[in-house]
Fold this protein.
Amino acid sequence: MLMVAIVVPYQTLGQPTPSGNEPYEQEFLITAYYSPMPGQCCYVRGGEAADKVLNGQGIAGADLTPVFPGMIAAPSSYPFGTKISLPGIGTLAVHDRGGAINELGNGKHRLDIWAGYGEEGLARALAFGLQRVKGTVYPNASTQPAVQFELANLPSPIDELKMYFVEKDNFLAMRPKEGERGLSVYLLQDHLQTIGYLKHRPTGFFGPQTSRAFHAFLRDYQVDAPTNMLSEKSAAFVLGARTRLKANQPFAEFVDPKASQYSIAQAQRMLRFLGYYKGRTNGEYDDNLFASILKFQQDHALVGTASDTGAGRIGPLTSRAIRGKWNRQIVEGHAGNHLDLYTIDQHIEKNGQRIAQFLGEGYSGKQVRLLQTELAALGFFPEEKINSVYGPLTEASVMRYQLDRGLISSRSDTGAGYVGPATLRNLRKDQRSILYRLVRAEGWKAL
């Protein structure tokens, strides 16, 4: 079973080193933990706050040493600063503790290795799993080797994250940056490849090729946003461009007095959409259409006067400019819709209404109350029974919701009655959709 161990503040010190001041061998059961960051695609407990409860704040160890590659959590019998060499892993230093990091009755001791930040760190921790290793302990009074450990030597496969993927429908919440690896990067690359900006297949690494593709996209769509990371605005435009692929092209031919009536009508519709034509869509190339095309050309520095070559006619340059402006406006409209949904998500979170972790039988508290309240709003839980306790009634209600949404096919399915990644993702989507429809009907004041 893959594990991410619990790390909690250290409370007691002073127990003696197991074997005096000389190096000695010891058998260990080792797991890994990471530092949760905002904007991840995935959290092992369903949300940043819940993962911080599981893994600690991810800033410093129990002795206040800032986290670094080569830091480990060990039982309290290992003084801070103790070095431990682990074959195939490296030499690491004890600077942290953990509630589950103790000496086991079978003669083995628990260790927890810090695996890094964010999605990449989580992927490493999950891939590391539980390992049994015989290592060498170097007490502080002994001659100690230097820390030798490279995070890059621990694999961080993206596939490890997929089972925890909650934010699939909320791309705007992700914040992949240049130089990072993770599922968020993979998604960005997939979108950029689909809309024609990235030529290679997604790898999950935000390297130079992805950076160039991302920069080109921001330039072409005139998006004022950071170029070294995905922001909610640039994410909205990326999704908007992907949605735009379903739209029909504005017109198929160049337009002049000899063009077909159909092509002229298409041009009239397009120029009206862009705010340049106010006449009838009659397929006639008249003075009104000539003036509309000319105004567009002048605004985009394609011609100077009506007597210039190509003035008032849609040729290759004008066609490219019209399509570019049409494309940007279509994408901007879709991006606005995505930004509205993100604003609703932010409103839900700001008002403490967001279910922020996985839940199951035996849980209690505010998060369970939020779950029961949402299930009641969707018609799956009796409102008068809301009690903040995840008991049999809540489990049965979750099952009914899962069956209704096609998340399970029977009550005996794995995950039935448990709010895991897919169920949490659907609950958030339903909550967002309800408020979005309310805003569309009554305006933002309805929130």
Q: What stands out?
A: Residues 316-350 form the longest helix (35 residues). The beta strands are 24-35, 71-73, 83-86, 90-96, 109-117, 131-138. The CA atoms of residues 193 and 199 lie 6 Å apart.
